[in-house]
C-alpha cells in the first residue's frame, strides 16, 4: 500500500501529501473534514492496490452499470485509452443484447468492449471495480447487492448526502442503504484525495457542486470569504440533463435561447451546502440558480462572494493558485483572464478566474468544467485511479477539443 | 395633440395616465425622474404629431442612418409592416450604391426601400425622422448636424449618460455635443413615456439596461428592494456584439460554449446605475457581469436583490404585475413560472419572473428580452411611435418566433 | 369536377385569374396543367367567399385540430395578425384544459384564443373552417366526421396521395376515407391555385415536396428538364420532425453534426413523384435523400437535373423568373446568387437559385423555404385565404427574422 | 522515382506492405494504382526512420508553421499525446512573442510548447520535420526555402495539383516552386501509403477530397462505378473556413441556417478530379456542390453514382469493406446503417455508408470525416508518422467526442 502512486495513506501523522498543494488542508486533514479519520478506516481496503486486484498485467476488470447514458459512454470513451482498465461488463437492461456501438455509434472502433447485458446477467466475480451510472434511488439497492470486494465509483446522487434525512427531503424517499452511506467517501478528488484512496465506495460529486466547491472550498476553509451572502449563478450544457427523451430537451426547445430552471429548488443545493459547510466548519447556506444554455457540454459557475476584512480579489486568486499549484487538472488563470467552457470541452480540467467586483468588498469567481468529464465520468476515472493505486492522471490527459 | 393615444402630455396637473399602471410613478412624475419637468419642455415639440409632420397620408418619411448593421436591418424588418413609416433613406457609407437586399438578403421582398447611400448624399429636407444606428462617438457629430426639425431616436450610447464626465470616463473621449445631450430623453418607454412623447432626441436604452431597469425601476422607486447588494448576472446572444467581423464573434469561437466578458467593466454599467439611481432617488451601485451565450438573439438578466423589511417575493411580483398591468409589452409571469429568451424571439416583449431566494430576505428576478427588439430596434420604433403620436404598438404586434 | 387533379380543373378559356399575378400561367391554365379545366367547376363552391361564411365582420371562426405541435402553434402565431381569422377552438386531447400559453409560452400575449379542448368537446356548428394538424392515419377519420360545411386545410399526409394503394404502401395501412380522398385538392398554392379556391378539403403539401415541386413543376411542364436522372439532396431543420419526445431529436443528438436519414425510403418520395409526374405528363421517378441539419427551421433542396437539348441554366432561370414573376412568395434570384435558409426564417417565402453544373448539360437548382411556414402552416393559411376568398397574402407578409 | 504519382511508384513485385493491414491492395499495389511501383524508390528515403532523424529518444523535433489557425492548433492538440513528436517551433508572424495558450486558451496545459515566433527567427537546423499550415501561395516559397533535410507535411493546397497550369487556373497565379511540386507526394494516406513513406514533401489532401476520394478511389479503380455522372453534394462545418475574421463566418451569419457556396467553382474541384482520374485511369469530371452547415467540425459527402453493369449497392459495400478491412481509420458500415458527422468528431475516422438508390442502377455513398482531423491535421500526423517510420496510428487513437 505504501507504494501507491498518488496520495499514499491519509493518516495525518505521516501525510505524504502529494501534490504539495494540499498542504493548506492541514487544519482539517487531508480530506478537508474536521476530525477526519480516514486513516483508520483505510485498513480494510489495504488490498486495493491494482497489483493486488489483478494478477499479471496491472489491469482492473471494470463494469459500467447503466452504460446507455451519456456518463456511461463517457467512461468508455476515456477508458479506451486507459492502460489499466479493461471494460469487462456493460449493463443496460432495456438495451441488453445490443452491441455497444449500436447505442453509441461514435464508439464504433471500441470493438473490445462486451455487448450490453442485463445487470442480473453479469458475473460479478470476474469484476474488480464498477462505475455506477444508474439513476438515483435504484442505485442504492444495486450497489448494496454487489460483492463487497468490488470497488465502486457511483456517479448517481445516492451516496453524496451524509444525512439521510436531507436525502429524503430532496429526493423524496427513504434511503435504502443507510449503512453503506456511512462508508461512502465524497469524491471531490482534489479536496478529499486521501480518503478516496482508501474508499470502497466513492460518491462521485455532481457537476454543479464540482464546479462550485473546487474554488470555494479552500477559500472558505481559509476564511478568505464570508460564509454568508454567497450567490451562485450557474449555467449548464444540455448533456447534464441526460439522454432520456423529454420535450424540454428537444433540439428545438433548447437551441437559440436560454432559461433558468430549478430556481431555489435544484437538488444539487444540499450537496453544495454540505461540502461548503465542511469547508467553513459552520453551516453554509447559498443562493444557487442553474440555467440551461444551448451547448452540449460545458458548465460555468459565476460565484459572487463577500470577502473577509482586508481581503482582495488578488488575495483570493493567490490563495487558489497556491492551493492548486501542483494539481494537473485545476488551473487558476492570471488576473484579467477569464475562462470559457469551450476551452475545457472533453477534458478533465477546471479553469478558474477571479475578479474584483464593482461592489466594495466583493469578488467574482468564474469556474468552468466539462460537466461530463470533470463533472462526471472524468472525475470518476480520476477517483478510480486513486482507488486502484495508479497514476491519478491515467487516461485523462487528452487535450480539450476546440473548436 | 391632447388626443394622442399613449401617455398624452406629462404635466402632473392633468396626467391622463394611460396605461394606468404608471400611476405608481406619481412621486417622480411620469418620466420617473426626480423633479421631472417634461411638461414645460414639451411646448416646443407640440408640432410633433404625425399629422403635422406629413401632409396627406399620415406617413412619416424616416431615414435609417447606419443601416448595414443588425439594428438597422431590424428597423427595416419591423418598419415593413408599419403603416405610418416610409423608409426614405438608408445610409451606410462603405456600402453606398448597393441595394439593401444585397447587404441583407432576408429583406429581398422589401423592394420599396431606397438603396444604401452615403450620409452626406441624403437630402434631409425630405426626412421627418431618423433612426440613428451608428457607432458611438461618430453619432454625436452627425446628430448635431441634422436639421433641428428631424426627430431622432438614437440607438447608440452617445446620449444615454446625462453626465458627460461619466461618458468620458467610460467611452474614453470628450463628448462632442454636450448641449444636445441636455435635450436628450432616455427612452425606456414604459418608464419615461411622457417625456419621450415630447422629445426631439430620444436616447434609446442599451439592451442590458432595458432588461434590468424595467423590473428594477418600480421596485426601487417603491422601496421594495434595497439599493445595496444588487447583483446582476446577465447573458446575451451574439447579435448584441454587432456585425463587424472579429475573431471573437466567429461561429467556431462562440458555438457550444459560453463565457463572461467585460467583468466589472462593461460600458452599460454607468447607464444601469444612472437609471436605477433615478428610481431610488439615491446613488445606486450594482454588480453586473455579462456573459456571451451561443444564441443569435436573446438576453436574460438574473437579478439578485435584498428585499426591504417585511417584503416577500410575492410582494415584488404583485407590485410589478400592478405596475405593468396595462402594458402591452411587459408581462409579469405568475409564481413558479420563469421566462425563456426564446419565447420573446423577434418580439418587443419583456417577460419577468420573480422567485423567493433560498437566502432569507432575498429574491431572484428573471427578465428576458430580445436584445435586437425591445433591447434596440423594437423599442426604438416604440419610441418613434410616441414621438410621432401614433399608437405605441404600431408595427410591433408580431408574435415571437418559436422555435 | 371529377377531373380535378388533386382537385380542380381549370379551363384556359375562362381562367378567373386571381391574383392577377399569375398571368404567367396562361399557357397551362391556372393549375399549371396543359388543357386542364377548373373554372366551371368553381360554381358549387361559390359560397366559399368569406362574407358568406360569417355574417357581419368578415371573420371566419376557425378550429386548429392538434394544436399542441409546432405546426399548430405556427398557425396561431401567424393567425394572430390575420384580420379574417378568429381562432375559435384549439384541440389537443392530452393537454385539454390547459391554457394555450402553458403549452406554448411564446404566445403569452395571444390571450384571445380559447384553452385547449378535447376534439370531442368542440361544437363544430360554430366553426367555419379548420386547420388539421393531427398525425397521419388518425386524421382521416376525424376529417370524415366533421360537418361537411367546414372547409378544411389538412397539414397531415393523409390526403396528399391520390392513389390509396400508394398510400398503403408507404404509410402501412388501408386508407379510412377513400371517398374523401377523391375530393381533396393538393395545396401547392402557386401551382393549383384555382382548384384550391373551390376546394372543401385541401391536402396541404409536405415540406420537402413544396421546396422541390415549386421549382421543378414548371420546368418539367415546359419540358426544359428531363424527367430522368433527377437527383434531390435535401436538408431539413429539426422542427420538421415534430415535437414529440424522441432520443433522436434531443439537443445533444442533433447539435454540432448532421446525417442523412430515410435514405431511399422517405415517405415524401411518392408525394414528390406524384406531383412531378403531373407536371411531366409521364411517370417521374427521382432520387431523394433527406438530411437532418442542426437548425430549428429551414429546408434546402439541392436539385441536380439533366437539361433538355439546347437548354442552359439561364433558360431555366428565365423560365422560373417568368413563371413566378408576379408571385408574392416565390422569388427567383439573379445569376450568381444563391439562397440561404436563414433568409426565409419565419416567412412564407420560397427562394430559388439556378446554376450551370460543371457536368455538361446539367444544372443545379437550389430552393429554400421555412419548413414550418411555406412548408406547413404558412402555406396552410395561404390556402385557407384562397378557400375563404380573401387576399392570398393576408397574415403572411411578415418579413423573415434574421439573424 | 520520377514515376511517382503524386510521388512514389510501387512495384507489385516487392510491395513492402506496411502496415500488413493493406493486403487488400495486392491487386493494384501499395499505391492503389494498377501496375504502379514504389518499393524500389524507397531506397533514397531509407534514412527516414525516426531513429535516424534524432539520436537517443526516438523523438522528432517538429515545427508548426502558421500555428495560429485551427489546423495548427489541431496539430498541437493531437501532438500533445504523441510520444515521438516534440514541438520545437511554432510560428505565426503577427502573433510572435505570445504564449501559445494566449492564442489558444484551450491548450493551457500544453506548457511544454515554445512561444509563437516569426518564421524568420526559427533556427531550422534544430528541426527534423515541419507541418506547414500556411495560406496557399505563400507556402510555396517558404517550403522551398527550408533546409532539404526537413521532412514536410504541407496542409495548404500548394502542392496538391500536379499540373501547374491547373494550379494557375484555379488559384490565380503562377506556381513559385514547380520543381518542388514534382517531388510532392499526394497524402491520401490509405491510398498512397508507400509513396508517402518515402516522401520528403507530402501534400496533405483537402478535406472535401479526403471525404470523397476515400470511398470513390477503390470503386473507380475496380470499375464498379462509372466515371460519368458522379454527383457530389458535400456539407462542411465552419472550421473549414479557417479562423480569419469575416462577416460570412460570424456566429449570427452561420447559426440556424445553411446554404450552398462555391457552386460549380470550388477550388477543391480540380483536386478531386485529379485523384479520381488517377483511380479511373481516365479523366473524370464531377459535379460538386459544397454547403456550409452550422456546426464547428464535421464534413459529409453524399455521393450519387451510376454503377457498372451488374453491380449493386451490396457489391460496392463489399468492395469497400474488403478494401478497408484492415485500416484503423476507415470503417464501412453495414447495410442500412448510415454515418453521422458527430460520430467522428475529434477523431481521425472516416465512416462510409452505401445505399441502393431509388433510381435503377444508381447508388448513394455517404462519407463523413472530421474536417480538421482526417480532413487536415489528423491525416497530416498520420502522414508524418509514415514519413518518420513510426506506427501510423500514433497519437491518433483518441475516441470521438460525442455529444
From TrEMBL, chains A, B, C, D:
Residues 61-199 form the Semialdehyde dehydrogenase NAD-binding domain. Its EC number is 1.2.1.38. It holds the Pfam family Semialdhyde_dhC_1. The keyword Heme does not apply. Residues 1-10 have a biased composition (Gly residues). InterPro entries: AGPR (IPR050085), AGPR_AS (IPR023013), AGPR_dimerisation_dom (IPR058924), AGPR_type-1 (IPR000706), NAD(P)-bd_dom_sf (IPR036291), Semialdehyde_DH_NAD-bd (IPR000534). NCBIfam families: argC. It catalyses: N-acetyl-L-glutamate 5-semialdehyde + phosphate + NADP(+) = N-acetyl-L-glutamyl 5-phosphate + NADPH + H(+). The keyword Amino-acid biosynthesis applies. Residues 1-20 are annotated as: Disordered. It is an enzyme of class 1 (oxidoreductase). It comes from Ostreobium quekettii. The active site is at 207. This is Probable N-acetyl-gamma-glutamyl-phosphate reductase, chloroplastic. Keywords: Amino-acid biosynthesis, Arginine biosynthesis, NADP, Oxidoreductase. One of its GO terms (biological process) is L-arginine biosynthetic process. It comes from the Eukaryota. Belongs to the NAGSA dehydrogenase family. Type 1 subfamily. Pathway: Amino-acid biosynthesis; L-arginine biosynthesis; N(2)-acetyl-L-ornithine from L-glutamate: step 3/4. GO terms for molecular function: N-acetyl-gamma-glutamyl-phosphate reductase activity; NAD binding; NADP+ binding.
Amino acid at each position: 500500500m505504501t507504494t501507491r502512486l498518488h496520495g499514499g495513506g491519509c493518516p495525518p501523522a505521516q501525510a505524504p501529501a502529494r501534490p504539495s498543494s494540499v498542504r493548506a488542508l492541514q487544519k482539517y486533514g487531508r480530506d478537508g473534514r474536521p476530525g477526519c479519520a480516514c486513516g483508520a478506516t483505510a485498513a480494510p481496503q489495504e488490498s486495493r492496490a491494482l497489483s493486488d486486484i489483478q494478477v499479471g498485467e496491472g489491469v482492473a476488470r471494470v463494469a459500467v452499470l447503466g452504460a446507455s447514458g451519456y456518463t456511461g459512454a463517457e467512461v468508455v470513451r476515456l477508458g479506451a485509452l486507459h492502460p489499466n482498465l479493461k471494460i469487462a461488463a456493460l449493463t443496460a437492461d432495456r438495451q441488453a443484447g445490443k452491441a455497444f456501438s449500436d447505442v453509441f455509434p461514435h464508439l464504433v472502433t471500441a470493438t473490445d468492449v462486451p455487448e450490453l447485458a442485463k445487470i442480473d446477467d453479469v458475473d460479478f466475480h470476474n469484476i474488480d471495480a464498477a462505475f455506477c451510472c444508474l439513476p438515483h434511488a435504484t442505485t442504492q439497492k444495486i450497489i448494496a447487492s454487489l460483492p463487497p470486494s468490488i470497488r465502486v465509483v457511483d456517479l448517481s446522487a445516492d451516496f453524496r448526502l451524509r444525512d439521510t434525512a436531507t436525502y429524503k427531503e430532496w429526493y423524496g424517499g427513504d434511503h435504502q442503504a443507510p449503512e453503506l452511506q456511512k462508508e461512502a467517501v465524497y469524491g471531490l478528488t482534489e479536496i478529499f484525495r486521501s480518503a478516496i484512496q482508501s474508499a470502497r465506495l466513492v460518491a462521485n460529486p455532481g457537476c454543479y457542486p464540482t464546479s462550485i466547491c473546487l474554488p470555494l472550498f479552500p477559500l472558505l476553509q481559509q476564511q478568505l470569504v464570508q460564509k454568508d451572502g454567497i450567490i451562485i449563478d450557474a449555467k449548464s450544457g444540455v448533456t447534464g440533463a441526460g439522454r432520456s427523451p423529454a420535450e424540454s430537451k428537444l433540439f428545438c426547445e433548447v437551441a437559440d435561447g436560454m432559461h433558468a430552471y430549478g430556481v431555489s429548488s435544484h437538488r444539487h443545493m444540499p450537496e453544495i451546502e454540505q461540502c461548503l459547510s465542511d469547508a467553513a466548519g459552520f453551516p453554509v447556506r447559498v443562493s444557487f440558480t442553474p440555467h440551461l444554455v444551448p451547448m452540449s457540454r460545458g458548465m460555468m459557475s459565476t460565484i459572487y462572494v463577500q470577502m473577509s476584512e482586508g481581503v482582495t480579489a488578488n488575495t483570493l486568486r493567490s490563495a487558489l493558485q497556491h492551493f492548486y499549484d501542483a494539481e494537473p487538472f485545476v488551473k487558476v488563470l492570471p488576473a484579467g483572464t477569464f475562462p470559457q467552457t469551450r476551452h475545457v470541452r472533453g477534458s478533465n480540467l477546471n479553469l478558474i478566474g477571479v475578479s474584483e467586483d464593482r461592489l466594495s468588498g466583493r469578488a467574482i469567481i468564474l469556474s468552468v468544467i466539462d460537466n461530463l468529464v470533470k463533472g462526471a465520468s472524468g472525475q470518476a476515472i480520476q477517483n478510480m485511479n486513486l482507488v486502484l493505486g495508479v497514476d491519478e492522471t491515467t487516461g485523462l490527459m487528452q487535450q480539450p477539443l476546440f473548436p
